[in-house]
Amino acid sequence: MYNVGDNIVYPMHGAGVIVAIEEREVLGEKQNYYIMALPIGDMKVMIPMKSVNDLGLRQVIGDEEVLRVFGILQGEKTSMSSNWNRRYRANMEKIKSGDIFEVAEVVRNLTIRENDKGLSTGERKMLDTARQILISELVIAQDSTEEQVVEKIASFFED
Question: Residue 23 forms beta bridges with which residues?
């Protein structure tokens, strides 16, 4: 279980800080929720405590893992299906997994593809989502600002 003040990652939403634990009644059922504040977008999310394991909540990565993420971002593009639909589904699975290394891979591959060939509207939206998830965790993991993390990621893709 997590406590107020813990930094956690909620797959598909990103990283944030537990700011409260509250009992709420939703659809006639009382249960306890983590209230998580996300650093990007100034948003709060209610997470049912009884569903924590099913949702894939986890701790924010440490310094070693940050370096590994940077290594992935700087790496070569991995092969992706030329079929848009298959590629989209494979990338969505990686994002939904909540694994920061897979999210970094999606950001890298789609950014490289965007720079080479451009992206469809769906893949552009997916890249934006993956990038926000990645940025939110790196902001907390490195105790830095969104701007600093955005610049750092952009620097990996400059020619």
Answer: 32
Selecting from 1.10.10.10, 2.40.10.170, 2.30.30.30, 3.40.350.10, what CATH number does the domain 7-59 have? 2.40.10.170
Answer with the residue of higher pLDDT: 133 or 158.
133
Contacts (Cβ under 8 Å, ≥6 apart) of 72: 101, 104, 105, 108
- For 53-156, strand residue ranges (E) read 58-59
Distance CA 7, CA 133 (A): 14
pLDDT, mean over the chain: 92
The 3-state DSSP class for residue 24 equals strand
User: pTM of the predicted model, to two decimals?
Assistant: 0.90
